[in-house]
Amino acid sequence: MITSKLLFKHKKINHGFFNRIGGKSNGIYRSLNCGPGSNDFKSKIKNNLKIVKNKISKKSRNIFLMHQMHGNEIIYISKNFKFNKKKIKADAVITDQKRIPIAVLTADCAPVLLYDKKMNMIAAIHAGWKSVYKGIIKKVVNFMLNKGCKEKNIVAAIGPCIQLKSYNVKEDFLKKFLKKNKNNKFFFKNIKNTIHFDLPNFIKSQLKSSKITNIEVIKIDTFDSKNNFFSARQSLKLKHDDYGRNISIIMIN
């Protein structure tokens, strides 16, 4: 489990960015696959989620997961929130309730965890390029501000994800970003005649444009197999027919 130095300072919360080590799954899902959307055995995924939950808290509710859609829908867990078995379609979850571990699943996309130390409010964002392009970062921050949070009190951690050197893209991808904002060219680099995209820095820029300044970027590449993270792109390269999911989690104690 990897932690953010910025978030770790705050004792009212627990959090963690998990890689694929320490679970019960086998084969291409070895070993801490937390993705119910994968074709892994459901019993193994359930056991893996229990391992993660116990690492964060043995006295909390079960981990709250969304049905992630690569969109910009958000969900707020209030005091009167009604939990049910059907997963809600969204890519970010926000709460101010204690002992509800909220989490996102990734396999190259970036997990983003937020915490407002004064309002004691947390958020977990599934930040792939599509969600970030559609403005999910700003939407989450604005929601938190409307709930009484202040930009200066929000701490943000951008977790392990695919890094610039590993994220090669096609020209139409670049054009899509430039059409939205010409300044987006800053997040692209030509490496050996191939276009590469800097996802974590693009997310950081979105946070900064929302006036969030306390930001930590954990510079670990999920595509690099030595880091032991599930990677959709690595699985594609190896011609696997599926892949596991990494979990990133945050909870108010």
How would you characterize the overall build of this protein?
The protein has a single domain (5-163, 215-252), classed as CNF1/YfiH-like putative cysteine hydrolases. The chain has seven helices and twelve strands. The chain has helices spanning 5-8, 42-56, 129-133, 136-146, 171-180, 199-209, 232-237, and strands spanning 13-17, 74-77, 92-95, 102-106, 110-116, 121-127, 154-158, 168-169, 188-191, 194-197, 214-217, 246-252. The strands form three sheets. A six-stranded mixed sheet has the order 2-3-6-5-7-11. The protein is globular.
Mean pLDDT: 97
**Number of structurally distinct domains:** 1
CATH topology: CNF1/YfiH-like putative cysteine hydrolases
Distance from first to last alpha carbon? 18 Å
What does the overall shape look like? globular
As a whole number of angstroms, the C-alpha radius of gyration is 17 Å
How are the strands of the largest sheet arranged? 2-3-6-5-7-11
Please work out how many helical segments DSSP would assign: 7
| Oligomeric state as shown | single chain
> What fraction strand?
15-25%
Q: What is the name of the CATH architecture? A: 4-Layer Sandwich
SSE arrangement, N to C? HEHEEEEEHHEEHEEHEHE
Top CATH class: Alpha Beta
